[in-house]
């Protein structure tokens, strides 16, 4: 049986083969995306530009010699490859486990083609086992958290919790905070997405709906390609 890391690596390496010279490539965030970035660098393509979705990915790409460009300095991105925390029906996704969901979504939305890469455990029959990350502005975040709790209750979900780590409250690259909505099961992801976006303090959330064009999932039998 292959390990999750073997599967992540295989999906990242397969995705790296999709890149051609001349492309602007969105570089995802997380351990699977890091395999993609490493495999892409190893191809030594002479004419590609990367748009990183986090400071961590930018640092890795720079270290490996991938030229970078800012999102605002390109019209479109040809291909974005990024990890996922869950891959549900129709390639609906939960992302943001690495707190990069805002830049990730901005890059995905600017892309012609978006490919999710993951290990097999990320496939789920319904979204929600992985807590849904919600990025909020710092100002008044406790009040925003109360409004999120009201929305959670409407959807029969428990109140979201402010994300903390060893060094205290987690702050995103954009200076915002993350609330995680541990749900168990999200029955109406589109309705939940709309409700979350209606809260003024919410910058964005980790529901990536109708954004992935395909997924490359590492399995014991090799990398499987999924389409919506
Ligand atoms: C970061 C993300 C990651 O892509 C997601 O958390 C998957 O991470 P990994 O590949 O390490 O399992 O959304 O914000």
Could you tell me which ligands this complex binds, including any ions or cofactors?
Answer: ribulose-5-phosphate
Radius of gyration: 17 Å
Which class do the helix and strand fractions yield? alpha/beta
Major sheet: arrangement of strands: 2-1-3-6-14-15
Q: How many domains make up the 3D coordinates?
A: 2
If you average the pLDDT, what whole number results? 97
Q: What fold name stands as the CATH topology of the largest domain? A: Rossmann fold
Please count the beta strands (DSSP E, at least 2 residues each): 15
- Spans of 5+ residues with little confidence (pLDDT < 50)? none
Give the percentage of residues in beta strands.
15-25%
Please give the count of helices.
Answer: 6
The sequence of SSEs as H and E is: HEHEHEEEHEEHEEEEHEEEE
- Helix percent reads 25-40%
Q: According to CATH, what is the class of the largest domain?
A: Alpha Beta
Q: For the record, give the distance between the C-alpha atoms at the N and C termini, rounded to a whole number.
A: 27 Å
* Main beta-sheet annotation: 6 strands, mixed
State the oligomer: single chain
Which descriptor suits the 3D outline? Answer: globular
Return the CATH architecture of the largest domain.
Answer: 3-Layer(aba) Sandwich
């Amino acid at each position: 049986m292959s390990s999750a890391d073997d599967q992540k690596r295989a999906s990242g390496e397969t995705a790296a083969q999709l890149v051609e010279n001349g492309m602007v490539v969105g570089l995802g965030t997380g351990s699977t995306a890091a395999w993609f970035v490493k495999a892409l660098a190893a191809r030594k393509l002479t004419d590609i530009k990367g748009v990183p979705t986090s400071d961590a990915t930018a640092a890795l790409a720079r270290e490996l010699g991938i030229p970078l460009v800012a999102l605002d300095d390109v019209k479109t991105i040809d291909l974005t490859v990024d990890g996922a925390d869950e891959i549900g029906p129709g390639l609906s996704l939960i992302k943001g486990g690495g707190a990069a969901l805002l830049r990730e979504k901005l890059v995905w939305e600017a892309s012609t083609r978006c490919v999710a890469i993951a290990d097999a455990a990320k496939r789920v029959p319904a979204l929600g086992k992985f807590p849904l990350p919600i990025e909020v502005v710092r100002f008044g975040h406790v009040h925003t958290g109360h409004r999120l709790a009201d929305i959670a209750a409407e959807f029969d979900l428990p109140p979201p919790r402010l994300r903390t780590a060893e060094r205290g409250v987690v702050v995103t690259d954009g200076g915002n905070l993350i609330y995680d909505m541990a749900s168990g099961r999200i029955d109406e992801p589109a309705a939940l997405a709309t409700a979350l976006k209606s809260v003024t303090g919410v910058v964005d959330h980790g529901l990536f709906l109708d954004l992935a064009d395909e997924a490359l999932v590492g399995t014991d039998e090799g990398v499987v390609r999924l389409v919506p």
